Amino acid sequence: MATEDVKAKTTKKKEKVAPKPADLALDVASQEMIARSREMEIETIFDRAQTMKPCNIGVQGTCCKNCAQGPCRLPLPKSGIEGKDTRKGLCGATPETIAARNFARMVAGGAAAHSDHGRGVAETFLAAARKETHDYSIKDTKKLLEIAPDFGVEITVEGEDGQVMDRDIDEIALEVAEKALAQWGQQQGEVMTVKRAPAPRYELWKKLGVVPRGIDREIVEIMHRTHIGVDQDYENIVEQCSRAAIADGWGGSMIATDLQDILFGCPYPVKSSANLGILKEDHVNIIIHGHEPLLSEMIVQAAELPEMIELAKKNGAKGIQLGGICCTANEILMRHGVPLAGNFLQQELAIVTGAVDAMVVDVQCIMENIANVADCFHTKIITTNPRAKIASGHCLHIEFDEHTAFEDAKRIVQTAIENFPNREKEVIIPDQRHDLVAGFSYEAINYHLGGTFRGSYVPLNDNIINGRIRGIGGVVGCNNARTMLDDGHITVIKELIKHDVIVLTTGCNAIACAKAGLLTPESAKVFCGPGLAEVCETVGIPPVLHMGSCVDNSRILMAATEVVKAGGLGNDISDVPVAGSAPEWMSEKAISIGHYFVVSGVYTVFGVTFPVSGAPVFEDYLYNKLEGIYGGMWDLEADPIKHAHKMIAHIDKKRKALGIDKARERVLMDMADRQKLEAA
Fold it and tell me: Strand 380-383's sheet: what is its strand order?
């Protein structure tokens, strides 16, 4: 009997208690759906995160599987390195070489993902310019004319009489399309959009030899250099990382953003709402998930057709409700006000509501397990891109083609409508939804600060100089199931705005902010320090500016460039009181984004973990020595409060270097004082 008692106690001791939903997600809607998935015994990423622990050596970045002699695993000794580090792989590769190669391959993967997105947009833009498709057209001619010179395209022509005339807009569009698409495949020269960086930054890149020659070339070269027996100098490997990252941030991603704006319209502030509460029980609910707006733009139009609304009513619904997840969500939010259903870790939970009639996916950040969750409900998973299929009999593939885009979209919407009567499980939609204002392109910020005729970043610079705004934080990135959903994002941002740091955000971080109610002008009074609150109230903006999808991080680069151009805050991005952050990063894209911010001169902090701790020399190179080369550097801080204060400390360091760290007394001037100034 005593033995049985001991066994029972031992068994009980070994049983792990699953974390409460409130410990896994910050927002109540996600907590409710996690609880429901457990009640229904539906496994989600939140369950797998508890049962599958990360590889300790992989987390350190010192596991090499680049040849069949491995994997070679070089864990950091528990006692640390004393004296010379003698760890080597079979081929003799040091921890620094292995960690640098792994880091480089993440940059390559991330740059490839975003830049291939850009290539798809460029191909569609070319088809539109050639009039090969009637579904897409040039909507923003102003932006086309603004970017044309960056590609060496003339926007005027001299007539026979010597008079300068505007060129035909179709001719300009075609030439821009051809020049833009050529940036991927060119082998020599420079990616043309790199020259948009402040002149000192561009000259630094030229001096260091890291100006990219062509987008694809730099990504391929990383893969070659990191093959066994090629590049074995971590500094040299990082140099190639810099070329590829610049080719992404100042090339493929930036071109994608520009051409999307021209095709679909440059975003300006729009009101909407966010979280799973945007779903409607009596409507056909279509979730658009992924990263490319080419198809989603057509789905928005198709869902508004009277014939589709009528079909929905014939099938028992009152209408059609669109909602977005991940960056496709941000794209259609900015231009059409389509509400946000959620970010990366909510994709399974949206299906668990039982209300989703179709989840339409394109590329990137799509969990394979959505097919398994959908199998427990009536939801149809519709894949649309030849790059991204799911090997499941429960998925329907309707391939998108830019030449038949609208017809493809109508077929998808019709499929969702016809699935509405097949609902068999109880529909439970959380009540949570928050208002938001999104769509702050750098052009929109320019307008908000000065209006149509006096648009300028000077008011922003003036308020940084006078101390009302302490500095700028670029907070972006994914969700990570190894942390509490959205907690890192929201804690970091609330701490920043409390200390008068205005925040620019994209991607899943932007969606987290929307769910937390931080994307409204009214939130400034509640969460901000007095200086930032005053500026937000005066200008009528939120303290956190939603700038778009993760490919739109190029908007943050351009906003920083505009700050430099406005004057008073140094000659380069590295002089500006600005810091970058990805509190809950998880994808290779985040590493590429982080690196192009670092080499652009921005101090960049990541949360959760960073895969270099097993190679202390390489870690020191990224965290310290890069600053002496590029003016920006990497850092890691898992604690969100400390994370924010590292950013604030860096911003204060830059303020001191500019001589604007002293508090300035505010003086109320009368007319006599103003006349003295004018006379002077």
Answer: 395-397, 380-383, 356-361, 284-290, 320-325, 340-342, 270-274, 434-438
The mean of the pLDDT values for the chain is 94
- Please tell me whether the overall predicted TM-score, pTM, comes out greater than 0.90 for this model: yes
599 and 492 belong to one structural domain: yes
For residue 295, give Cα distances in angstroms to 121, 123, 396, 406: 11, 14, 16, 8
Q: Look up tokens 């109540």; give the residue.
A: 28
Contacts of 67 (CB under 8 A, 6+ apart): 91, 228
pLDDT value, residue 164: 84
* Cα distance between residue 374 and residue 397, in whole Å: 15
- Does an H or E element contain 156, and which? strand 156-158
Tokens of 337: 């006000």
- The reply to whether 450 falls in a domain is yes
E-only strand ranges, 350-478: 356-361, 380-383, 395-397, 434-438, 471-475
| Residue 507, pLDDT above cutoff 50 | yes
Q: Please report the pLDDT score of residue 671 as a whole number.
A: 57
Structure tokens at 364: 């990137």
Query: Coil, strand, or helix at residue 342?
Result: strand
**Sign of CA pseudo-dihedral 439, 443, 448, 449:** positive
Note if the bond before 200 is cis, omega within 30 degrees.
Answer: no
What is the number of other CB atoms lying within 10 angstroms of the CB of residue 300? 23
Q: How confident is the model at residue 57 (pLDDT cuts 50, 70, 90)?
A: very high
Are 439 and 416 found together in one domain?
A: no
One domain for residues 125 and 258: yes
Element at 203 (helix H, strand E):
helix 199-208
3-state SS track over 17-50: CCCCHHHHECCHHHHHHHHHHHHCCCCCHHHHHH
Could you tell me how far CA 295 lies from the centroid of its own chain? Answer: 19
Binned at pLDDT 50, 70 and 90, residue 674 comes out as: very low
- Domain of residue 405 covers 276-422
